[in-house]
Amino acid sequence: MMSIAGDARVLLSMLRGQPRAGSHAERLAAFYGPQAGQYDAFRERLLHGRGEMLADLLRALTETRGATTGARVVELGGGTGRNLLFFGTALDTFGQVDVVDLCTPLLAEARRRFATRANVRVTEADACAWLPDEPVDAVYFSYALTMIPDWRAALDNALAMLRPGGVLGVVDFYVSAAKPAPGLVRHGAFARAFWPRWFSHDGVKPCADHLITLCEQLPAHQLTEAMAPVPYLPLLRVPYYRFVGRKPV
User: Fold this and answer.
1) 29-54 pLDDT, tens per residue?
2) For helices 104-113 and 24-32, angle between their N-to-C axes, nearest 10 degrees
3) What average pLDDT score do residues 72-91 get?
4) What per-residue confidence (pLDDT) applies to 1?
5) Quick count: other Cβ atoms within 10 Å of Cβ 79?
6) Among residues of the chain, what percentage have pLDDT more than 70?
7) Burial class (CB in 10 A: 0-12, 13-18, 19+), 104
8) What DSSP assignment string belongs to 203-223?
9) Where are the domains of the chain?
10) Collapsing DSSP states into helix, strand and coil, what is residue 243?
């Protein structure tokens, strides 16, 4: 539930920014620890397109398997696990669901949320290195790829754990290349300069390379590029994309 006090805690953490010292896990804990309890309420108004991307992923997963029953699904950079709720009743049909993240305070929220769900496992681990015990049917990143320093390694790891014909989903902030490929949106010079600087203070690094790499590695995909409002910045719209691709068989 949104509250002025909760927003104030989140905004104070954002103004302070993510620490520059320590390991990646230590920086995440220091930044998100004070705002963990308010994380979801604030991000509902900031992280747009998550439900739509996961609906697209669910449709692609159903087309691939014929049904969602027994599907193995992984969220890398899953934080509080809130995104799993976008699956609705389909979540109950999945076999094993893994939420993987490095941030201890956010994972504590996820463990509380899914303490009674036998098919949801919450794991503190590096998205660049963690692997399931067998190939999975779907992997997704929700506003996580921009926060992983070695995002190429995380993407390679996601594809490695995905079975042939499996589905990869991503929703995240980005900025376009100065001269994007035909069919892709071109952002103005202000957006390409402003958003990477604005987000980098909090350890978020939107860029053009993420989307370019996704399109290259998964040619069979659906893509939506859009703009969304930002809390307390009423005159600005931030670029984001939704991507769902299928791993070649």
Assistant:
1) 766 666 666 767 777 888 999 999 99
2) 60
3) 96
4) 47
5) 27
6) 88
7) middle
8) T----SHHHHHHHHH--SEEE
9) 45-246
10) strand
- What is the DSSP code string of 135-155? -EEEEEEES-GGG-TTHHHHH
User: Tokens 């009423």 — which residue?
Assistant: 234
SS3 32: helix
- Architecture of 45-246 per CATH? 3-Layer(aba) Sandwich (3.40)
What residue has token string 């939506």?
A: 224
> In sequence order, what are the beta bridge partners of 192?
none
Q: What one-letter code names the amino acid at 73?
A: V
Which of 74, 96, 232 minimizes the C-alpha distance to 144? 74
Q: Are strands 221-230 and 136-142 parallel, antiparallel or unpaired?
A: unpaired
- Over residues 117-158, the pLDDT tens digits come to 999 999 999 999 999 999 999 999 999 999 999 999 999 999
Q: Decide if 184 contacts 176 (C-beta within 8 A).
A: yes
Q: What DSSP state is assigned to residue 113? A: H
Task: Say which range, 28-32, 87-91, 166-170, 206-210, has the weakest mean pLDDT.
Answer: 28-32
- Which residues contact residue 51 at a Cβ distance below 8 angstroms, ignoring those fewer than 6 apart? 86
> How many beta carbons lie within 10 A of that of residue 100, not counting itself?
24
* Cβ-contact 73, 137 below 8 angstroms: yes
